[in-house]
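Long-time lurker. I teach an intro course on protein structure, and each term I like to show students one example going from raw sequence to a predicted 3D structure in token notation. This year I'd like something fresh instead of my usual example. Would anyone be willing to generate the tokens for the chain below so I can use it in lecture? Attribution to the forum is fine with me.
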Amino acid sequence: MNPTTYRKLQINHTRNKQQDHTTLMNEVVEKFNYEECKHEYWQSEEFSLFYGTPLWEQSSPYQKTILNHLYWVAYYSQIISAEIATIYFNQTSATGLYAHEDFRLICDTLDLESAQERAHIHAFRTISKQTELALFGKTIFTYPMRTPFTETMVYADTNALKTWWKKLQLQYFGLISANNAFLACQYFTVRGVRTLNGKLVQHKLSNFYQKHPDKETAPIPAKVSYYHFMDESFHFNSSTIISHDVISCLPSPTKFESLIANLGVWGCQKDHFHFSAAINGIFWYDPALYSKVYEVLISPVFNMNDQDAKEMMKRCFTQESEGLNHSFKTHQEARNSYQVYVENLDYLWSRNREMSLMGGNSLEKYLATQRREFRKFEKMKDLSYAETQKRREEVLEYGEKYG
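-- Reply from a regular --
Happy to contribute to a lecture. Here you go:
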């Protein structure tokens, strides 16, 4: 490793240790009580679930506050999924570098980051579970703890076969990257791209706390957003140094190594192909969200009946809105920033450097997909409702006959 690269790593690691926000995060999370901050926003208004859609426009001030809280819960549930995977692949990647001189610093850096990720996951889950249990009596968006060998995107365009295949791919990459320095470094290209997407949103989320008139009394979720962003800034620096500087100290990749590296970036493009009318900044596949949104709308928070809930969902998902345009704009910004991030990595295919797969999505494609998939959802719900009513009538009939 050349002295300049080593110095970059050293500065980043030292500053991360000095400014580590784990202790502060742990302290405030232990004090979190939803009742104490349920009447105030946790981030700026635009970062609310369904902001700029018909649901937002027709919501009461109380309901808008809840949508603001649910954005926090949903957003950081996605971050939990990514960080579970990060903890695992930090370790396999560090193992892939054991055999090289002067790589201890990288391993120490990744150890610190993994410890921080565990603190983040604990904080996000603690706040999310308490919030949803208070609102709904159960969890809806809160991420259930899983292994890292699953879809990183929580609500993805997937099925049982795709999920199984993704699991095999992740297990295989973990195995080979633990014995291959190039692939160990290249993992941080994908991690850097994913973290870059987070930085676009998390910087704005952290601003809510930074600009709060009284930081001491600011809502605890806002503090957690700020502490998390500060930690992740160093993690992004690590990803950039390892994937751009450290990797250049290694021999040129073989054809096999280049293939695996490119498939990894291509997979990231697949994960980030979609954008969501429900949540700006997370690239979820909205049809996978329908059942969760339906639960929210028929809950006591919105108290809609079956027909009203479906009609509201139809308006939000299948019609163009200010919120949908905001989400598409964020998607385009992310694609442009990814292109800049990978433009000098000459082992990547041109379609990865250009992020052409992500660029293939559009508002027109989004709306066509939603209109097709929502018709299926409506039919499924109609059948489910009819079956429920039939069973209810059978129970009543039985009660009248034999009761």
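Some talking points for your students: The CA atoms of residues 156 and 285 lie 5 Å apart. The radius of gyration is 23 Å.
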